UniProtKB/TrEMBL annotation:
<dbReference type="InterPro" id="IPR055170">
    <property type="entry name" value="GFO_IDH_MocA-like_dom"/>
</dbReference>
<dbReference type="InterPro" id="IPR000683">
    <property type="entry name" value="Gfo/Idh/MocA-like_OxRdtase_N"/>
</dbReference>
<protein>
    <submittedName>
        <fullName>Dehydrogenase</fullName>
    </submittedName>
</protein>
<dbReference type="Pfam" id="PF01408">
    <property type="entry name" value="GFO_IDH_MocA"/>
</dbReference>
<feature type="domain" description="Gfo/Idh/MocA-like oxidoreductase N-terminal">
    <location>
        <begin position="4"/>
        <end position="123"/>
    </location>
</feature>
<feature type="domain" description="GFO/IDH/MocA-like oxidoreductase">
    <location>
        <begin position="132"/>
        <end position="258"/>
    </location>
</feature>
<dbReference type="GO" id="GO:0016491">
    <property type="term" value="F:oxidoreductase activity"/>
</dbReference>
<dbReference type="InterPro" id="IPR050463">
    <property type="entry name" value="Gfo/Idh/MocA_oxidrdct_glycsds"/>
</dbReference>
<dbReference type="InterPro" id="IPR036291">
    <property type="entry name" value="NAD(P)-bd_dom_sf"/>
</dbReference>
<dbReference type="Pfam" id="PF22725">
    <property type="entry name" value="GFO_IDH_MocA_C3"/>
</dbReference>
<dbReference type="GO" id="GO:0000166">
    <property type="term" value="F:nucleotide binding"/>
</dbReference>
<keyword id="KW-0560">Oxidoreductase</keyword>
Length: 341
């Protein structure tokens, strides 16, 4: 079968460490084009993969023979580039957060529907083994009624990860739109929606800029969220965890407590109220820490959805619903009140 020809728009760290290597390992993919405003970055990957280099995404979409693209740019460009690619009849895998507003998200979804091409958002937490197992456990009813949760995603900040270090676009509101809440928090809103199988309806939040100098976006946020059935919990997103990364989620339920990625040795632990317990070692979660990076499975799922003409697990509608929680948190902070989602 003919391989899917892929172009990558934005050749910074997320492309370098996640998208490009996973495409390269996929036997159904041929990397044929790279685009970045920094010529050297695009050209470096083009040389490595015998592909074409571009500095203008519009030119790449017009001239390159690609079937699909990954959009790995600053957040403010996610929507315009994704829409342009979909209108050029290319399948799109867009990094998170998918957009900077509900209106942009709607426009992306409409472009996908009009073109008949796939639109997937790069929320990788759904594919983590402990999270997949947790979803099946919750669905089984073994935990009984879920009462509450706490989840956190925090590390020392993107300066150690981003290709531009402390000068990264991550800290610039005009290009990033949102800081830790968009970089990390939106991953957890997507995960919680997926695990609980229901939507959030209310949010209250403190979203602060306190830890990073010369930053115009949030770096420390705490949210209280409520689902449609009344499950309440907290979500913390931070670039101020200056030690080991925290990527944990805990559920408090009728029959016990389930801990995900909250123990160095066991990625899923259940402590039942009757005294019994379960401990599962399911492999390390995706992490920026050296030695812990594993396949995100995002690329493989995107490719499979194209090959099988199936709907991606995290399509545009799902991405929009996860974004909506983050937008509500921002609104809550600005209004100093609980807001509906």
């Amino acid at each position: 079968m003919t391989k899917i020809k892929v172009g990558v728009i934005g050749c910074g760290s997320i492309a370098k460490y996640r998208h490009i290597p996973e495409y390269a390992m996929n036997e159904n993919v041929e990397l044929v084009a790279f685009c970045d405003i920094v010529t050297e970055r695009a050209q470096g990957f083009a040389d490595e993969y015998n592909a074409k280099a571009y500095t203008d995404y519009k030119e790449m979409l017009q001239k390159a023979d690609v079937d699909a693209v990954s959009v790995c740019t600053p957040n403010s460009l996610h929507a315009p580039i994704s829409i342009a690619a979909l209108e050029a009849f290319k399948h799109v895998l867009c990094e998170k957060p998918m957009a900077t507003s509900a209106e942009e998200a709607d426009a992306m979804i409409a472009a996908a529907a009009s073109s008949g091409k796939k639109l997937m958002i790069g929320h990788n937490q759904r594919f983590v083994p402990s999270h997949s197992k947790a979803r099946s456990i919750i669905e089984s009813g073994n935990l009984g009624k879920i009462y509450s949760f706490r989840t956190a995603f925090g590390h020392g900040g993107p300066e150690s990860w981003s290709a531009d270090g402390s000068n990264s676009w991550f800290f610039d509101k005009e290009r990033a739109f949102i800081g830790a809440m968009g970089d990390l928090g939106v991953h957890k809103t997507d995960l919680l929606r997926y695990l609980l199988g229901e939507e959030f309806v209310e949010a209250a939040a403190f979203v602060e800029t306190s830890a990073k100098q010369n930053s115009t976006v949030d770096d420390n946020a705490v949210c209280i969220l409520k689902t449609e059935s009344g499950i309440i919990g907290t979500l913390a997103a931070s670039w101020a965890y200056n030690g080991s990364e925290d990527n944990s989620t805990v559920f408090y339920a009728e029959n016990g407590i389930m801990r995900l990625e909250d123990d160095p040795d066991y990625s899923l632990i259940i402590e039942y109220k009757n005294g019994n317990s379960e401990r599962h070692s399911l492999g390390a979660i995706q992490s920026n820490a050296e030695g812990k990076q594993t396949s995100t499975q995002v690329i493989g799922h995107f490719v499979e959805s194209i090959l099988n003409d199936s709907e991606p697990l995290v399509n545009g509608e799902e991405g929009k619903k996860s974004l909506a929680v983050i937008l509500a948190a921002l609104d809550s902070h600005e209004k100093k009140q609980i807001v509906p989602i």
